[in-house]
Specification:
The protein is α/β, with parallel strands linked by helices and about 375 residues long. It has two domains: about 180 residues, NAD(P)-binding Rossmann-like Domain (Rossmann fold, 3-Layer(aba) Sandwich); about 190 residues, NAD(P)-binding Rossmann-like Domain (Rossmann fold), CATH 3.40.50. The strands form four sheets. An eight-stranded mixed sheet has the order 3-2-1-4-5-6-18-19, with helices on both faces. It binds nicotinamide-adenine-dinucleotide. The site of nicotinamide-adenine-dinucleotide has 31 residues, from helix 6 and helix 7.
Amino acid sequence: MRIAVMKETHLGEKRVPLIPLTADKLVKLGAELVIESGLGLSCRFADADYEKVGAMVSSSRNEMLQSADIVLRLRKPPVEEVELMRKDCIHISYLDPFNEAELVELLRRTEISAISLEMIPRSTLAQKMDVLSSQANLGGYAAVILGAEHLDKIFPMMTTPAGTIKPARVFIIGVGVAGLQAIATAKRLGAVVEAFDTRPVVEEQVKSLGAKFVKIDLGETGQTKDGYAKALTPEQLALQKEGMAKACAKADVVITTAQLFGRPAPRIIDNKMLAEMRPGSVVIDMAVETGGNVEGSELDKITEINGVRVVGFGNLPGRFAETASQMYSANLGNFVEHFWDKEQKTFHLNCNDEIMKGALITHKGEIVSEMYKSIINK
Ligand code: NAD
């Protein structure tokens, strides 16, 4: 079975989908592996490193796409490349399906079996393939490092002959995977950390990391069966803002990570709250790519609002491209291995498997994802 791995073309993207360690694993499974020349260069992996483990190297993107049984890549495929792939080709990547209805329709029409890695269920079994978790984890780390870089103060407390320096105060809104890593990283750097999430179940996790959970009574909130937050009502959002304002005003760095599955991110911090913050403090909006948690934040920009620096950088995991690639590549390798028939040396697209049921969007000319259909048809 021929697996082609495409070099990433998105401007500024340094992550690579497959590193030589995972290439070795796929070759050992019995796959005929072809990587595009230059695939790993942004992370300093040479073509020869892939050849050493038995992969072939090609400079013809068209030929690779036309001959592949499986195509692996990082980001969604460009439209013109979908048309080059063979009918029944299995395409595995990030797909961002809820924002890419036209692309999904094209994948359906061209009879590609498109697997969206973001849609892998958040189950214990699927954890080793969960790209959302591995990249969000790094994103949380990167957000704290960015906050520390843009704050004019240091994070830890210091007792020096020149006096005592107070620790920085960091407030984290949204305690999923990214938020938990942000708490842990800010604590390691010595900050005093507070956090809030609409899912009350995270309170224990926040405390176990040594941070304080900010309590705001929003009434009934809860989570979906997959553990995702439910959207708040406008009244609840207003109550949340009121409660958040105090914690934000005390903070030197605020990191927002709040997301709603398949929907735009909730707007949590408005200009009024920013105006109550101390000039010189920093807000990192980790949700800037999905609509933003912070009023006025702009993608890939630092915006100064009332003296507060609002940092809206996208692709935070990509700032640590080598680690991010290592993790993405391992997730991808584990996904392929999970469905690999070791005797036949083929990928078995098992539509009855729970993980496949979650991640497969289009198959044999149909849109098969129930989750996609339910959200897109709302
Ligand atoms: P996410 O990226 O969807 O959202 C980030 C956080 O924002 C969530 O904790 C959410 O509750 C919070 N949020 C949403 N609206 C908010 C608001 N108005 N104010 C404050 N916070 C708000 O979350 P995620 O990191 O992808 O995790 C989603 C779920 O999946 C969690 O329950 C997590 O524990 C679970 N998970 C399970 C596994 C596993 O079992 N294998 C792996 C990873 C994540």
